[in-house]
Amino acid sequence: MSKRAFSFIELIVLLAILSVMLAIGVPYLTKYIKKYGIEKETAQIYSDLVAQRFKSITTGENYGVAFNANSYTLFRFDDSNYNMKYDGPSEMADAVTKSVKYKILKKTNGGYLSASNNIVIFDKNGVARNVNWGFGGFTIKVDSSGIGPIRYNCVIISAQRIKEGVCQ
């Protein structure tokens, strides 16, 4: 009668092989998880911007989005003093703040900086405006430094269009 079992040495070799495979695979897995999270947050910001623009067109009211480094706020623009200018948080009605895991950046001439206090307001025609009611457009990027190739990591807001894209 023959015994069919693994010896202790065979089990140790198997554990060593599995440990090496895990040591190689874990960094790729964490990078993939971060990449997916960045793409998901970018898609959520894009979706919320499009929804705010759509609400402004369908209701005839002004809606906006205020970006900060780790969150953004969706609101109905209540221009109570009728000066057609954003005068601060007191003009944010029905505000909903959404937190994000990865930092939100704004494109500037010198690269990307924290997106603190950047606001876009959609008028009743869905045109993007800045806080002084001029035609506003800018690029918002979810920080993807150190990730490599990524499908979507930024949202480009122009006066008439909102697009998802890849920003370097």
Short description:
The chain is an alpha+beta fold and 168 residues long.
What is the CATH class? Answer: Alpha Beta
The radius of gyration is 24 Å
The CATH topology label is: minor pseudopilin epsh fold
Query: N-to-C terminal Cα separation, in Å?
Result: 67 Å
Q: Strand order of the main beta sheet, please?
A: 3-2-1-6-7
Q: Report the helical percentage.
A: 25-40%
Count of domain modules: 1
Element layout with pairings:
Elements: H1 8-59, E1 63-67, E2 71-77, E3 92-99, E4 104-108, E5 111-114, E6 118-122, E7 128-129, E8 138-142, E9 154-157, E10 162-165
Antiparallel strand pairs: 1-2, 1-6, 2-3, 4-5, 4-8, 6-7, 8-9, 9-10
Tags for this entry?
elongated; alpha+beta; 168 residues; 1 helix; minor pseudopilin epsh fold; 31% helix; five-stranded antiparallel beta sheet
Description:
The protein is of the alpha+beta class and about 170 residues long. The chain has a single domain, classed as minor pseudopilin epsh domain (minor pseudopilin epsh fold), CATH 3.55.40.10. The chain is built from one helix and ten strands; from the N terminus they run αββββββββββ. A hairpin with a 4-residue loop joins β9 and β10. It is elongated and about 90 Å long. The model has no long low-confidence stretch (mean pLDDT about 85).
